[in-house]
Amino acid sequence: MTVGFIGIGAMGQPIAHNMLRGGVPLIVWNRTISKCDSLVAAGAVLAGSLDELFSSAETIFLMLADESAIDKVLDRGTPLFRQRVAHRTLVQMGTTSTGFSTALAEQVHSAGGHYVEAPVSGSRKPAEAGRLVGLLAGAQSDVDRVLPLLSSVCHEIFYCGPVPGGLRMKHATNMVLIPMMVSLCEAAHFARQSGLDMQTFSDVLLSGQMANDLMRAKLPKLATLDFAPQAAVKNVLDSALAAAGAASNAGCPATLLAACRELLSNAAKEGLGEEDVIALVKTLRA
């Protein structure tokens, strides 16, 4: 069974590579065709058009930048939408608002298709290592069909109930993760400004109860001021906005997240959107 994959970006590319390594036959499409080159070299088929991809695959994964990109790919709001999704399983991996995902799921079902939410927890480095955490939601029978396709992508997969349970879980985890990233940047900035040895600062954090994969990924980048994106400022800001919206809908204040959003927004306005989230140190020292 050939599987479709749309969205070969910072996360989509390593996810698709790991699916290929796991033996999943892929047909791929991306707006910038050259981003598919390494996948084609690894055995994927390059779709000449979206029509070709949808006609060739019964299950289609979407890892797209935002809601408008998803709508455009699916031709949502046009007669072509039904043709795209009927009798197919759509696996939506991007981080969107819960309202968007719920409405899309209803429309896919009305058109005779199936819909699975599959946001993941983790950035590019765990994506490359096949160490993401999958947060799946949808009808149990639909989720069960998708699970084997993600076995080489995620080291843990959790069933989060019906849509939008996967995204609610993603937003909840981001309410922990985003303040952690921001506070790490603030602490690293303080350590550097205070004249502390950055290697010792890193060793101290990684020797105690604060040691985790995020610290192990970001501390070396902070020590060398390596701003190449694993999780870009603009993407973390989008995640913060989506989590804030979900929190507001649930009647939760999300005070820490609001402070993080302000810092991330300032960094984006300063032209740092494409850089790794540790570029926040640039705004702190300005």
Automatic annotation (TrEMBL):
Q: Classify the source by domain of life.
A: Bacteria
Where does the record place the 3-hydroxyisobutyrate dehydrogenase-like NAD-binding domain?
Answer: 166-283
Q: Which GO molecular function terms does the record list? A: NAD binding; NADP binding; oxidoreductase activity
> Pfam families under this entry?
NAD_binding_11, NAD_binding_2
Q: Which InterPro entries match?
A: 6-PGluconate_DH-like_C_sf, 6PGD_dom2, 6PGDH_NADP-bd, HIBADH-like_NADP-bd, HIBADH-related, HIBADH-related_NP60_sf, NAD(P)-bd_dom_sf
Question: Where do the 6-phosphogluconate dehydrogenase NADP-binding domain residues begin and end?
Answer: 2-161
Active site as annotated: K170
- Keywords, A to Z? NAD, Oxidoreductase
Signal sequence coordinates: none
Identify this protein by name.
NAD(P)-dependent oxidoreductase
Question: What species does this protein belong to?
Answer: Dyella tabacisoli
The opening ranks of the lineage are:
Bacteria, Pseudomonadati, Pseudomonadota, Gammaproteobacteria, Lysobacterales
